[in-house]
Design goal:
It is a multi-pass membrane protein. Belongs to the dicarboxylate/amino acid:cation symporter (DAACS) (TC 2.A.23) family. It comes from Nesidiocoris tenuis. This is Amino acid transporter. The protein has 2 domains: 40 residues; 220 residues, Proton glutamate symport protein. It has 14 helices and 2 strands, in the order H-H-H-H-H-H-H-H-H-H-H-H-H-H-E-E. Strands 1-2 form a two-stranded antiparallel ribbon. Helix 1 runs parallel beside helix 10 and helix 4 packs parallel to helix 13. It is globular and about 80 Å long. The termini are far apart.
Length: 304
Amino acid sequence: MFHSRDGTNTLGIIFFCLIFGCVLGTLGPQKYTVINFFNVIYEVLLKMLMGAIWFTPLGVGSIICGKIISLGQLSQTLTQLSWFIVAVAIGFGIYQFIIIQSIYYLFVRKNPYKYYFSFGPAIVTAFATASKSAALPITFRIMDENVKIDRRITRFILPIGTINMDGTALFLSASIIFIAQMNNIYLGMGELFTIGLSCTVASMSSATVPSAALVLVLMLCSTINAPTEDVSLLFAIDWFVDRLRTTNNLLGDCYACAVVEHLSKSELSVIEEEEAALKTNGQVSAVSNGNCVIDIGTTQTTNI
């Protein structure tokens, strides 16, 4: 049976924002008033955030220390955190080495691991910086020079990769379930479905900066009425887990480019033929305007 729950309707807020943005995009010039308003709000919040960043080391350290002091069984909590890291790493490994490889082979019908190892420099950069935006130039170079993916595909998919955050969605789901288990919160099929749906949608709004997903964890705890205080424990391990999910986010975009190119081969070839025809017609027109007649059969040019 369905029943109501106290707390913030996080899933409703997320879907309202999605629908609001989609409808706003369909309006005419009136929409720029609202867009300018939110741009100003963004600038104000950005300045406030830059001020808070200077106190981040002190603040995060104080939160972690306060949480550790309040724990009654420190060894048990450390064991739970260790198993959380192992579980998340296994999940990332299954996705990275099995799921996306299977998707690539299913659609492209080529060796997926040869494609995977081509992105070694980009994976290392993403792991070191914990941001796939920092690895974007290297990813573009590999796409153009090594794997030869069409530039029209890569220039469209890779820059908007913030809506394709596979690793972040996996991390959010695992974090919410971990916090629920720490507090002995029962999760039925309804709760698990809500967590999966809300984490998938919320991951689309995650920024490509280090530790951005922790803010979403705080917000999503309300979907199951989990205490937000335990999120502070994740700050201590996020420096490592963040690097793992960033590589998954990066590879998700790279494999999406390969699959989209394979499925769009006929459309891309038609566009190339049309562009070639337009260029040919343009050259013939230019030559004709120059008082020349082209003999197609003999490929000779005769001046008038």
